[in-house]
């Protein structure tokens, strides 16, 4: 029997479990700490992992990773170009409207300044 081969139902150490599932030992330990992976400690305080529990955990990890990055549908470039053209037209219209409002504001400001600068003559100024 080769060193990396083990009997089917023999408990594994975290290092051997990591090697068998092609993940780091830290990943296995993190799964044990978060109680995602069932494991127990023996009398020498070494972790022992049941191969069936490891398989269940690995299958769950594969299922999670498939759902973590779903493939998004792509939008055709022509649709994006049309949306961009519409957005640019709206931007240009808003700029023109803003320029008109600013001209109107300036005209009202000039009229207000002219009215404020005229001297007031009345019976109370005598």
UniProtKB/TrEMBL annotation:
Coiled coil: 77-111
Keywords, ordered alphabetically: Coiled coil
Annotated region described as Disordered, given as residue ranges: 1-25
Annotated protein name in UniProt: Excisionase family DNA binding protein
Keyword Coiled coil tagged: yes
């Amino acid at each position: 029997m080769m060193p990396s081969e083990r009997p089917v139902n023999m408990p594994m150490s975290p290092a051997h479990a990591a090697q068998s599932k092609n993940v780091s030992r830290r990943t296995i330990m993190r799964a044990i700490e978060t109680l995602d992976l069932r494991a127990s400690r023996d009398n020498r305080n070494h972790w022992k992992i049941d191969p069936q529990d490891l398989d269940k955990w690995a299958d769950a990890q594969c299922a999670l990773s498939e759902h973590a990055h779903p493939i998004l549908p792509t939008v055709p470039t022509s649709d994006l170009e049309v949306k961009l053209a519409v957005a640019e037209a709206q931007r240009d219209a808003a700029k023109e409207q803003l320029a008109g409002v600013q001209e109107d504001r300036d005209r009202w400001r000039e009229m207000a300044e002219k009215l404020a600068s005229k001297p007031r003559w009345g019976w109370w100024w005598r």
